[in-house]
Each structure stands twice: as C-alpha cells, then as structure tokens.
Amino acid sequence: MPASETELRILYQRYAPALLARCRRILGDAEEAQDVVQETFARVIRRWDEFRQESSPYTWMVRISTNLCLNRLRDNKSREAKRSMHPEAIVGDGFTAPHDDRSDEAALVRRALAEADEQTRALIVYLYFDDMTRQEAAALVGLSQPTLRKRLDEFFVRARRALSAPEAAALATLLGVLVSR
User: Quick one: 169 and 109 in the same domain?
Assistant: First the structure.
C-alpha cells in the first residue's frame, strides 16, 4: 500500500534534516547532499511498497542515502580522474570553502574510500560519518565482527598505498579510533 501524502510529509519533516546533515558530512558538499536527500525521498515514494517494515523508515532511508552518497563519491572520483588528464580545461571560480579540522579528516576519509569495495565503503561511512559501533555497522551490512575487522585492515592497507605518508599516518589515527570502537 503506497504511503499517503501526509505520511510522506511527516517522514520528510522528521528525517530530512538528519539525512541532509549526514549526507553533507559524507559528501563534503551541501548541494550534492541536498540532491541525495531529494533522490532518497523520491526513491521512498517510488518504492514504498518494498519497505518491509523490518526496521524503522529512518534506517531504510539511511541505507538508500548511503548507497546514493557512495555512488556520488565514485562518480566524482571518475570525473576527477578525467579532469586530471585535461587540467587546461578547468577554470576555477575563486571560491574557498570554510575550513576546519573535521572537514580535513572527512576529506581524507573520502579520498581513502576510493580504494575500497562498496561494502567496505558502507562500513567506513557507518563507522566514521555515522559514529556507529562496529557491531551496529556489521549488522547493518550483514557481516560478522571478524569479517568487519578484516575489511577494515584491508581498507587501511589499500589506503596506505594510495596516500602520502603523513596522510596515511593521519588515517591510521582515525582508523585506530574506528577499530577500537
């Protein structure tokens, strides 16, 4: 049975701000985050009949938005690779985004995510951006605790190869916090 307009309005009012903040942390871009939230709700509308109510609507929307964010990160990496092959075609706008330590950390994690498979990306998003415990993240993606630890170790090895030594050290510190949860 499709959700009523009232139900959808209530879901949007209740969950859109949290989803937007979460997507902004993951993507590092407010406009892209807004696009993802809108697409998340568009999918909720189209797929309401598929919602099995085994979890809360918010959990379902978090999964949808996580997948959309990971797709955006992957697509952005592909665009950046193309731009690096043709740097003369890029014209800057002179805009500099606000800067803080947390955004530096998030940017580093986003860069390292490029070296991970989809399931590991989701784990890192849940652990780093959503501040979930290892147990919560493992349950959400359907992995055991030992498999989660193995995925995190593999993620760090790949990321260490892709980053500079100082960045790898910073990521190790961040992951050390993640792994100890």
Answer: yes
Specify the higher pLDDT residue, 176 or 67: 67
pTM score = 0.65
Task: State pLDDT tens for residues 129-156.
Answer: 888 888 888 888 889 999 998 988 888 8
Provide mean pLDDT across the span 72-92.
54
- Same domain? For 4 and 90 the reply is yes
65 neighbors 36 (Cβ within 8 angstroms): yes
Show the domain range for 11: 1-97
Measured between alpha carbons, how far is residue 120 from residues 12, 99, 129, 140, 163 in Å? 28, 27, 13, 12, 18
Supply angle C-alpha 162, 163, 169, rounded to 5: 130
Determine contact, residues 105/170, Cβ cutoff 8 Å: yes
**Which of 76, 97, 118 is the last residue before a domain boundary?**
97
Same domain, 151 and 167: yes
For residue 91, pLDDT over 70 is answered with: no
Number of domains in the chain: 2
Helices and strands (H, E) in the chain, number of each type: 8, 0
Tell me the C-alpha distance between 160 and 98, whole Å: 27
